[in-house]
Amino acid sequence: MIKKLLPTTNPYSDSLTCDAAVFTATGNNAIVDWVWLELRDQQDASVVIAGQSALLQRDGDIATIDGVSDVEFSESANNYYVLVTHRNHLGVLSANTIALSTTVTSLDFTNDTSLIQGGANAVVDMGSGSYAMLAGDQDGNGQVQNTDINSVITILGGSGYSDADMDMNGQIQNTDINSLMNPNVGKGEQF
Q: Residue ranges of the alpha helices (H) in 29-173?
């Protein structure tokens, strides 16, 4: 059942919007949420060169606002660190700079932890050789802490598009805390 919870305007600073029809895709290419992408300076990974919103597909692919096309940045071809963040997960940053050019550059952080700063400490093992971002950062400060859990506890039973909904099923439940937040308490972004 499609719950139609995703907003057509992203939750990030660029206020990018998409057509609601993008959310009707099903299967592996179904859109499950918005993410934020950044290109960071090759000499200093703390310096943000560019950032933009994008859409996350069920299979982990990231697409532009049409839900299927590759994300493009207008910055010149160069080497950049690449950051992926999500509204209630810990972000991941590439371990090394990535050579981005005018042709398609494909990045896959899902099956090789050596490509991510912090390696296996920065992600959760989903089994079958795939990894995902760590859930539980309700306040977006780069750490999963008891304060995140305490904030979620105060709105248990709520529903809708919320940073407190860790499994993104539209409900704020004990399972968000017990299954996704508690195992990650004390973990933080590795960059």
A: 146-153
Angle at 112 between CA 100 and CA 179, to 5 degrees: 120
Joined together, the tokens standing for residue 156 give: 């248990």
- Residue type for 49, please? I
Q: Which two tokens stand for residue 47?
A: 């310096």
List, in sequence order, every residue forming a beta bridge with 85; answer none if it has no partner. Answer: 36
Q: Please state the separation of Cα 163 from the chain's center in Å.
A: 12
Q: Give the C-alpha separation, 23 to 15, whole Å.
A: 17
CA distance 91 to 141: 10
Residue with tokens 């059942």: 1
Tens digit of pLDDT at every position of the chain (191 positions): 446 789 999 999 998 999 999 999 999 999 999 999 999 999 999 999 999 999 999 999 999 999 999 998 988 889 999 999 999 999 999 999 999 876 667 888 999 999 999 999 999 999 988 999 999 999 999 999 999 999 999 999 999 999 999 999 999 999 999 999 999 999 999 99
Q: How many CB atoms lie within 10 A of CB 174?
A: 11
